[in-house]
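User: For a reading group we're discussing how well predicted structures match intuition. Take HTH-type transcriptional repressor NemR. Before you show the prediction, I'll give you the sequence so everyone sees exactly what went in.
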Amino acid sequence: MRDTRSELLMQAETLVRGRGYSGFSYADLADAVGIRKASIHHHFRTKEDLAVALVAAYDARYDEALAAILDETADGLSRIEAYGRLYLSGVETGLGCLCAALAVELDTLPEAVRTDVARFFDKHIAWLEHVLAEGVADGSIRASVDPAASARMVVATLEGALLLERLLAGAKGFGNTLTALGESLRPARG
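Assistant: Thanks. Here is the predicted 3D structure of HTH-type transcriptional repressor NemR, as structure tokens, for the group to look at:
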């Protein structure tokens, strides 16, 4: 049985990540899924409702990925590198981060979507700050790193590299940026 709602979310995410919030319509989404526009309204009354659901689904996937990183990696530097690799699929598929694509259009987004996007980034910054603080404490992150400032730097670096390397050097360029980011956090070798 077809799960139209999930299919709508998947196709809408691709459209937003590739074109932005203002760059697609329900007609585009209907064509991508192969249904009538009116059928979309059955699942998402408004484009705002769709965007809120998109951010919620994206956020839930990232929550799972962040939990897996904590379970599967032992130290701060490994966790930062694993976090960076989450962005790699966007480079490989030519799609930006959903929340960054939405943030670009901040002034035109409905308030509920702006709030959800800000909450997404706040959560990631807090997660990274915790990871960095633990890394400083266990010696896997350079002792002079300010976890709060560096958490923001990590997000800014990865979002910027995702945008830039989609255009320039692709996965190789992104990998080089991720390596440089790791080196900037690595403790000095004795």
